[in-house]
Amino acid sequence: MRIALVTLAAAATVAVVSWRAPAAAAPLSKGLSLEQIRGVMRANSRAVNACLVAATRRDRPLHGPFVYQIQVDGAGKVISARPYQPSAVAAFDRCVIGVLKRARFPGGPASVETALVFEPS
Questions:
Q1: What range defines the domain where residue 90 resides?
Q2: Are 99 and 48 a contacting pair, CB within 8 Å?
């Protein structure tokens, strides 16, 4: 299974950390550039991958997309993160939220929607 982390108008394969832009996707962020968000998501891709590995070890395989909403303050600190389109595994969502809350962005304030998409490899 390949894990893709979709952020705004771009996608990243979590295990490989490569990016591709889906056709005609609209930005879902206010206050941060696509490149800034990509950098943060790349920096946290291993932790998100660890969430997936732990969740699939205990439960059935997950299929996305799962969308998370993040609020970032002016200093780049995540002040809230919550599932908008959660997975069926609450432990996975809690793990991802924990990763997102520890993330640091290079500015703000911002409102970001990030989707996790799991694709068969």
A1: 2-119
A2: yes
